[in-house]
Specification:
Protein name: DNA 3'-5' helicase
Family: Belongs to the helicase family. UvrD subfamily.
Number of strands: 18
CATH topology of the largest domain: Rossmann fold
EC number: 5.6.2.4
Bound molecules: adenosine-5'-triphosphate, magnesium ion
GO molecular function: 3'-5' DNA helicase activity; ATP binding; ATP hydrolysis activity; DNA binding
Pfam family, one: UvrD_C
Length: 794
């Protein structure tokens, strides 16, 4: 008989519900931001489990970040009224790939306890191989090759697959050879790199049809969030697993206690009833699943155990359509620069014929103003699928999107800090606020400001500014200069950049220092006067010691930021990153510049070091109420009541490198990033731009981002300097002068127009703007940077 809908379905709109309840066959949910795609996925899993269509271990669910995976598990638990402990195949592509690989490592020539190399290991290894080939590793940097290998692996390519042109592009045509040597070496080391975590599974599934068939059978339901940002390898892996359903009589690769058949649907058809008090998984077959699911304590009586039905439910004959559900939004594809291919979502219906396509059009997240602003902005992109989005009718109390101007980034940080405090006074939690930056170097100013204000913050998806590798390296140099006894700092940089002082040399210095009871720098100075070291390292060490002594002499009579720059240059540290061709290098150079810039605000290098140790000491724990700071890339899928979007200036956002390298499509990806940023906000959205940024130690006036011109005036409030600043309080008369200066340095005709005449539709500005030569503001090739490192999103 008809039973009332389970509680977890309540509140879904009809389309969402269709996407949840269409469990059989392929489903694509293609919908704009905040329409409930992730919620649909979560509810769908809950539904599958609650209906007993599959064991938790038979559901493959891919999220974009580990954080998203954790949240999804939690919510499923809430929806089905019990803690879901066993969703072993819910995670990121990488975490699932590594799990699969550990099970079958031997099939690709590894042992199951293989290690995963980090980027540094990978580069060290490649460098050895490059040198072993008799090649000059300065001309053919290992980092550059690592980057190429990454790109190939994103496409699912092994050494045999790379096109001639690609193979020729490195090391005088030895690209393929080196790639092969690298893979062989990894095998000998029983190791793999990040890219292998997916490439190996693809290879092993292809080469072992029986294993593939097991998994195809095992994963009764496949779900993928953020499908628009899958790369080719991820796509291939998914397609392998989902391509067809194999005949279900096979015994699948089993988890402990798992039966070949889904537990409950059959039972219901046969008239078995679940206890209404226990919404999850029924009780049938539960004993064997106790490890995987803990049902709410209400699940009392235990019906007889199920005998597995002869055929898996939803299995069907060979070639039956797979139960795959992908959700995504083409307007939020923001990882093209890392190999993601939005076409994957566009060809879903071709890949999976007969797919149900569900459109969700109601946005539940944002106010009409925020949605209006975001929709209008993204409307400037060509080649969109085009989706309708609506939300509740605007509430007259809803604030518009606020655009603010600041003189420079310091003032921007101060104003953001004040706005945060104002929201806090209005009763908002810091947890509900986020600052989303385009490039990670922007974080520094906010972190410093918040430490001064005593505002808790956390950096999501990456280290805090002063914890970044390059910043720590640089700081280590400064520490040795200011505090010659700082052995930890000395050890950190004694061979960074590489100067031929390997472990043996460092140990020698270390032991000598111990013996004499002096700091390592002093020990090194004595050592180089002896015969104890081989001539080459001795010369290198002597050079380093002399440099430190020279910098120490300069300490009291050179402007300290200038000295800092000198140190990084003379030590070869800056040059090391300049020579580096990896994707992260430009961002690291930006961070180094930002570090030096920030130093100017302090009286001396020592005062600066002290400040940093205070910042580093600032508490970071999960439970505290804190503002989140992250890159726009890391913010995908998240939502906050209040969102701050600083740095909307040409060259920074859109980022110069995206424009230089990506042309029109680069610009469009930047615009999608802006769309992602805006649509994170539920209620308050504050955009900032500054009129001056200090670049290469020089003040440069900047041009407000073209994206500002692309915001619709009727959803946007422009804080017009100087009068609008009165609203924030705390700005004295000097504020006025700055605003004057601000007005005189602004150079964007588009912006002035928007400001002067807010009733005008701004979309037309795009046309006039595209012909305007945009002044370069210094984010050139060498120092343009992208904030999101690889670690932040996997
Ligand atoms: P994004 O594209 O940014 O990832 P999304 O489409 O995944 O967004 P969700 O994060 O799933 O959207 O949902 C956005 C917000 O709307 C969430 O707070 C969610 O709980 C809420 N929401 C979704 N559907 C409904 C609904 N039917 N009723 C009420 N709130 C809903
Ligand atoms: Mg989502």
């Amino acid at each position: 008989g008809a039973r009332s809908a389970p509680a977890y379905l309540e509140g879904l709109n009809p389309e969402q519900r269709r996407a949840v309840e269409t469990t059989e066959g392929p489903v694509l949910v293609l919908a704009g931001a905040g329409t409930g795609k992730t919620r649909v996925l979560t509810t769908r899993i809950a539904h599958i489990l609650a209906q007993g269509l599959a064991w938790p271990s038979q559901v493959l669910a891919v999220t974009f970040t580990n954080k998203a995976a954790r949240e999804m598990k939690e919510r499923i638990g809430l929806l089905v009224g019990g803690a879901v402990e066993g969703m072993p195949w819910l995670g990121t592509f990488h975490s699932i790939g590594v799990k699969m690989l550990r099970r079958h490592a031997e099939l690709v020539g590894l042992k199951s306890d293989f290690t995963i190399l980090d980027t540094d290991d990978q580069i060290r290894l490649l460098k050895q191989l490059i040198q072993a080939e008799g090649l000059d590793d300065k001309r053919w940097p290992a980092r550059q090759f690592a980057h190429m290998i990454d790109g190939w692996k994103n496409k699912g390519w092994g050494p045999a697959d790379i096109p001639e042109g690609d193979a020729r592009a490195f090391a005088n045509g030895k690209g393929r050879e080196l790639f092969t040597a690298y893979q062989n070496r990894l095998k000998t080391l029983n190791a793999c790199d990040f890219g292998d975590l997916l490439c190996h599974p693809i290879r092993l599934l292809k080469a072992n049809p029986d294993v593939l068939a097991d998994y195809q059978h095992k994963f009764r339901y496949i779900l993928v969030d953020e499908y628009q940002d899958t790369n080719t390898a991820q796509y291939l892996w998914l397609r392998l697993l989902a391509q067809r359903r194999v005949s279900p009589h096979r015994q699948p690769v089993e988890e402990r206690g798992e039966t070949a058949s889904p537990p409950l649907r059959q039972a219901q058809d046969e008239g078995l009833h679940r206890s209404p008090a226990s919404p999850l998984m029924g009780e049938a077959g539960e004993a064997s699943e106790a490890k995987l699911i803990r049902v709410g304590e209400t699940g009392g009586d235990t019906p007889p155990p199920l005998t597995p039905p002869p055929h898996g439910v939803g299995g069907g004959p060979n070639g039956a359509p797979p139960n795959i559900c992908c959700v995504g939004d083409d307007d939020q594809s923001i990882y093209g620069w890392r190999g993601a291919d939005v076409d994957n979502i566009l060809r879903f219906e071709k890949d999976f014929p007969g797919a149900s396509v569900v459109k969700l059009e109601r946005n539940y997240r944002s106010t009409a103003h925020i949605l209006g602003a975001a929709s209008h902005l993204i409307g400037h992109n060509e080649g969109r699928l085009g989706k309708t989005l609506f939300t509740e009718a605007p509430d007259p109390d809803d604030p518009k999107v606020n655009v603010h101007a600041a003189w420079d980034s310091e003032e921007e940080a101060r104003a953001v800090g004040e706005t945060i405090e104002r929201h806090q006074r209005d009763g908002h939690l810091l947890n509900d606020m986020a600052i989303l930056v385009r490039a990670s170097f922007q974080m520094r100013e906010f972190e410093d400001r918040f430490v001064t204000l005593g505002l808790n913050y956390r950096v999501i998806g990456g280290p805090r500014f002063y914890e970044r590798m390059e910043v720590r390296d640089a700081m280590a140099y400064f520490r040795v200069v200011c505090q010659p006894a700082d052995d930890l700092a000395f050890e950190r940089i004694v061979n960074t950049p590489k100067r031929g002082l390997g472990d043996a040399s460092v140990r020698l210095v270390h032991d000598y220092a111990r013996k004499k009871g002096v700091p390592m720098l002093a020990a090194a100075e004595e050592l180089v006067a002896t015969e104890e070291m081989k001539p080459k390292p001795r010369a290198a060490l002597r050079d380093l010691v002399q440099s430190f002594r020279r910098w120490q002499e300069l300490l009291d009579n050179t402007p300290h930021a200038e000295l800092a720059e000198t140190i990084l240059e003379e030590s070869g540290y800056t040059a090391m990153w300049q020579a580096d061709r990896s994707a992260e290098a430009p961002g690291r150079l930006e961070n180094l510049k930002e570090l030096i810039r920030s130093m100017e605000e302090f009286e001396s290098m020592r005062a600066f070091l002290e400040h940093v140790s205070l910042v580093m000491d600032a508490e970071q724990n999960e439970d505290m109420d804190a503002v989140s700071i992250m890159t726009l890339h890391a913010a995908k899928g998240l939502e906050f009541d209040t969102v701050f979007l600083p740095g909307w200036e040409e060259g920074l956002f859109p980022h110069q490198r995206a424009l230089d390298e990506g042309g029109r499509s680069g610009l469009e990806e930047e615009r999608r990033l802006a769309y992602v940023g805006l649509t994170r906000a539920k209620r308050h959205c504050h955009i900032w731009f500054v009129s001056n940024r200090r670049i290469h130690g020089l003040w440069q006036s900047t041009i407000p981002s073209r994206f500002l011109d692309e915001l619709p005036t009727d959803h946007v409030d422009v804080a017009e300097p100087p009068s609008s600043y009165g609203g924030y309080g705390g700005y004295g008369a000097s504020r006025f002068d700055r605003a004057e200066a601000f007005a005189s340095t602004r150079e964007s005709p588009g912006w002035r127009r928007a400001q002067a005449n807010r009733t005008e539709a701004t979309s037309r500005n795009w046309g006039s703007r595209s012909g305007v030569a945009v002044e370069r503001i210094g984010y050139g090739e060498a120092d343009s940077g992208f904030g999101a490192g690889r670690g932040s999103v996997k």
